[in-house]
Amino acid sequence: MGPVLLLGGHRPGRRGDAAAVVVGGARSIVTTPPGETDLTRLLGALTATVREGSYAVARTDEPVSVGDGVDALVVEAEGVTVVASLEVAEARGWEIAFVGRWVTLDVHSSLAAVGLTAAVAAAFAEQGIPCNVLAGYFHDHLLVPPDRLDDALAAIDRLRTGRGAPAPPQGRRGV
User: What structural domains and CATH numbers belong to the chain?
Assistant: First the structure.
């Protein structure tokens, strides 16, 4: 990969500003991520929607693309992680590592927001709720065990109403 160059009038913290970034000769436009960044407002507006059905987090070496029951892909050096409907993952014979219900946090959080996933993770950890997180452009998505779905939704509700929200970070402490 060649040098990374930042071109244009990008000013951090200003919504809607754009900059041209050149990476290895390819040019793309980068904007300040839209959405809410204030943790207090994010938590105060926190609601969730649950998708129908169960979803599998699986591994595959075969070529796969989003669609036809495949909802997300993560390409890693060791292989491809697939999030798909449980039925699709089983039918394709993928190595399933986790089965969960898909919970979408409805608040439009910025990709630059700090603390939302940490707050949710802390609330879930207090209750011993496993969770796998996917960050989308508009929303964060959580995969939780089907038998802990009600507990997860209750923890999200407690965060929204301030009955379980962790204290906001006060800055870095000694390393």
Answer: 1-32 (no CATH), 39-161 (3.30.2130.10)
